């Protein structure tokens, strides 16, 4: 009898310990199965049988909830593909629904899905010919992430010609001719996006982009003087404190890391220097491959 009671007790304890793990596994499988079918706008449009807007609304709810569940926690290609497909499917089902363009393109951009984000803004530009926000956002994608000022200026000029264009968009398109003017326009845009951001994750992402621009503005102020000192002495300065000798005050780093002297003699953030070196190596590799 005691043996049976002991066996029952051990079984109960084991089940109690194992249950949370089983629940977690079951939930993970349920969540993963939710991404089993990739949304396609053309297929869903046929299945909707004329009820395109209700279908778009239902899918949009699921898209937004999935973003909340996965953003910052899941970097898998599966959920990224599902999310991009979901946003584009909503755009297809209800091409006049501005909200899905506005937030869908922004969420995709914050995930790093820049190609899909740009497609959303381009579709919006075509579907809503009176709205200037989408072409302007497409221009900002071109400037902030594709590093193409000419393309950015072209999209921003399209935005400036729209009936609901903000007054400063024309000036922003014109300022794309200079790097400093482009940065000022980007900062205004990022501020507007921050006011509309819906989640803490989006806010952090937009703040990061803003701090990067502020950092680059600061570095540009002293870059020429740093470069001249490097060429004059032929040696790298011992520390970022060289800015004091050059007549500049070293500010708090907007990027949040340490100031360093780059191997080109220019003081910049440690992260920015690592990015610059990585890009330089990539260019060198491409040149070597072309020579072969």
Key words describing this protein structure:
Serine Threonine Protein Phosphatase 5, Tetratricopeptide repeat, 292 residues, single chain, disordered N terminus, 2% strand, two-stranded antiparallel sheet, 13 helices, mainly alpha, 2 domains
Question: Could you please describe the fold and organization of this structure?
Answer:
With 292 residues, the chain is mainly α. The chain has two domains: 31-209, Alpha Horseshoe (Serine Threonine Protein Phosphatase 5, Tetratricopeptide repeat), CATH 1.25.40; 228-291, no CATH class. The protein is built from 13 helices and two strands; from the N terminus they run ααααααααααααββα. It has helices at 2-33, 41-47, 52-70, 77-93, 98-110, 114-127, 133-144, 149-160, 168-175, 179-196, 200-233, 242-245, 270-291; strands at residues 259-261, 267-269. It has a two-stranded antiparallel ribbon with strand order 1-2. Strand 1 and strand 2 form a beta hairpin. Helix 3 runs antiparallel to helix 4 (77-93), helix 7 (133-144) packs antiparallel against helix 8 and helix 8 packs antiparallel against helix 9 (168-175). The termini are far apart.
Beta-strand content estimate: under 5%
- Helix content bin: over 70%
Spatial extent as radius of gyration? 26 Å
* DSSP strand count: 2
CATH class category name of the largest domain? Mainly Alpha
Quickly give the structural class: mainly alpha
Q: Mean pLDDT, as a whole number? A: 81
CATH architecture of the largest domain, by name, is: Alpha Horseshoe
| Total of domains | 2
Could you say which overall geometry the principal axes of the C-alpha atoms support? elongated
> What is the end-to-end distance?
82 Å
Oligomer: single chain
Work out the helix count: 13
Weakly predicted, low-confidence segments:
2-31
Element string (H = helix, E = strand): HHHHHHHHHHHHEEH
């Amino acid at each position: 009898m005691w043996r049976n009671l002991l066996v029952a007790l051990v079984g109960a304890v084991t089940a109690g310990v194992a249950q949370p793990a089983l629940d977690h596994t079951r939930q993970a499988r349920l969540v993963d199965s939710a991404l089993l079918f990739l949304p396609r706008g053309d297929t869903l449009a046929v299945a909707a049988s004329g009820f395109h807007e209700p279908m778009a609304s239902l899918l949009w709810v699921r898209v937004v909830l999935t973003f909340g569940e996965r953003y910052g926690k899941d970097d898998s290609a599966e959920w990224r593909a599902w999310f991009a497909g979901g946003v584009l499917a909503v755009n297809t089902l209800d091409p006049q629904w501005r909200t899905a363009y506005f937030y869908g393109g922004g969420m995709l951009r914050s995930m790093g899905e820049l190609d899909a984000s740009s497609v959303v803004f381009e579709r919006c530009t075509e579907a809503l010919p009176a709205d200037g926000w989408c072409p302007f956002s497409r221009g900002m994608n071109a400037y902030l992430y594709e590093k193409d000022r000419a393309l950015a200026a072209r999209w921003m000029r399209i935005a400036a010609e729209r009936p609901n264009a903000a007054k400063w968009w024309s000036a922003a398109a014109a300022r794309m001719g200079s790097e400093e003017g482009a940065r000022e326009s980007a900062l205004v845009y990022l501020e507007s996006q921050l006011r509309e951001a819906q989640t803490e994750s989006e806010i952090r992402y937009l703040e990061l982009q803003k701090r990067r621009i502020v950092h680059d503005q600061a570095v540009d102020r002293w870059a020429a003087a740093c470069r001249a000192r490097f060429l004059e002495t032929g040696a790298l300065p011992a520390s970022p404190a060289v800015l004091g000798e050059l007549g500049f005050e070293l500010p708090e780093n907007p990027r949040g890391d340490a100031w360093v002297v780059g191997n080109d003699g220019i003081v910049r953030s440690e992260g920015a220097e690592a990015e610059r070196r990585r890009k330089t190596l990539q260019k060198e590799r491409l040149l070597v491959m072309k020579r072969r």
